[in-house]
Design brief:
CATH class of the largest domain: Mainly Alpha
Keywords: Sigma factor, Transcription, Transcription regulation
Distance between the termini: 49 Å
CATH superfamily of the largest domain: RNA polymerase sigma factor, region 2, helix turn helix motif
Family: Belongs to the sigma-70 factor family. ECF subfamily.
InterPro entries: RNA_pol_sigma-70-like, RNA_pol_sigma-70_dom, RNA_pol_sigma70_r2, RNA_pol_sigma70_r4_t2, RNA_pol_sigma_r2, RNA_pol_sigma_r3/r4-like, WH-like_DNA-bd_sf
Helix content: over 70%
Low-confidence stretches: 109-123
Protein name: RNA polymerase sigma factor
Organism: Alteromonas arenosi
Number of strands: 0
Mean pLDDT: 82
Number of domains: 2
Strand content: under 5%
Length: about 190
């Protein structure tokens, strides 16, 4: 009985992968309905990653929109050698980091201000549950980026260093800083 259930699950999974490959191929040929199907299937995960990286809902919404705008042009680069979700994850990370850099630079130039101290914000702990994401959003920007990419998304420090234009040692130090802050905050609140 268990073998039959496993083979049914495997068949469904194989069918879903083939269906997604067909949708991707259609979208690569310019089919807007197929592209909308890809959008609908992946927008939640893309937004979640954008939110973790940006730390702000409005900025995450804008970054998500930027990802899907650029994805339309980059979709032809997907060659099927990896899972689409893995490729999309990498594209999302790259576009979001680039988007953050552009926005941060524009904001600082326009208003002539220093980096804001997001990590000084307090979390309302009167609620029954405070999620890890609430604490992660409080982290200083560089520490948050490294923590999200390494601990949550599974990037290696070498990959993070390349993506964020930093030394591998800096990536490891920022990750350590993030872990220390999270431990402190979660223990005190």
């Amino acid at each position: 009985m268990v073998e039959l259930q496993n083979s049914v699950v495997d068949a469904q999974h194989t069918f879903a992968e083939k269906a997604e490959r067909d949708v991707i191929a259609a979208a690569q040929q310019g089919d807007k309905l197929a592209y909308k199907k890809l959008y609908d299937a992946h927008v939640g995960r893309v937004y979640a990653l954008c939110l973790r990286l940006t730390g702000e809902r409005t900025m995450a919404e804008d970054a998500t929109q930027e990802v899907f705008i650029q994805l339309w042009n980059k979709l032809s680069n997907f060659n099927g050698q990896s899972k689409f979700s893995t490729w999309l994850h990498s594209v999302t990370s790259n576009i979001t980091i680039s988007y953050i850099r552009k926005q941060k630079g524009w904001f600082q130039r326009t208003f002539n201000i220093e980096e804001s101290a997001v990590h000084d914000q307090q979390i309302d702990t009167s609620a029954d549950t405070v999620s890890l994401d609430d604490y992660v959003l409080r982290l200083p920007e560089r520490a948050r980026h490294v923590f999200v990419l390494h601990a949550i998304e599974g990037y290696r420090h070498e990959e993070i260093a390349d993506l964020l234009n930093m030394a591998v040692g800096s990536s490891k130090a920022q990750f350590h800083r993030a872990k220390q802050l999270l431990t402190e905050w979660m223990g005190n609140e």
